[in-house]
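RECORD TYPE: inverse folding
INPUT: structure tokens
STRUCTURE:
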């Protein structure tokens, strides 16, 4: 039992160390994807200021978030103002509630039923570095089926 506990603790510490140094391991909140898979499985990765948030008129449990983009990560460029229809991350975690005035990195998953990655402050900078490092590898990485949209696979 001690060996198993030690192995589990070692794995957890190793994962935290890899995450802290911006390695190629799983990104925070990504359900076990590598950084390249996370980027490949995201349709939009943008940093900006939240201009407005309202309930989605298209999907129950989603919000419509308008962002004044300050930096595009994926795609490499886009509109200055973008409105995203995403699962409301505040439903499962009140600390992840998206509100006007926040400066965020939002990573929109390919599969519309999954919550977006929402990062602020130091976590925003950590995930920005991870994404930038993984962009090249993501170009040739296929999005695995648990995260791909129905019928997509890329």
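DESIGNED SEQUENCE:
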């Amino acid at each position: 039992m001690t060996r198993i506990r030690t192995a589990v603790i070692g794995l957890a510490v190793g994962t935290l160390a890899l995450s802290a140094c911006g390695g190629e391991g799983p990104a925070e909140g990504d359900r076990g994807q590598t950084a390249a898979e996370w980027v490949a499985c995201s349709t939009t990765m943008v940093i900006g200021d939240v201009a407005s948030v309202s309930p989605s008129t298209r999907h129950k449990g989603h919000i419509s978030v308008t962002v004044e983009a300050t930096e595009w990560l994926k795609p490499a460029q886009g509109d200055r103002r973008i409105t995203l229809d995403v699962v409301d991350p505040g439903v499962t975690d009140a600390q992840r509630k998206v509100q006007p005035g926040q400066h965020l990195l939002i990573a929109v998953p390919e599969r519309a039923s999954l919550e977006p990655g929402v990062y602020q402050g130091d976590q925003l900078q950590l995930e920005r570095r991870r994404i930038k490092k993984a962009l090249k590898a993501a170009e040739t990485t296929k999005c695995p089926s648990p995260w791909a949209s129905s019928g997509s696979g890329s």
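NOTES: Helices lie at 2-20, 35-40, 121-138.
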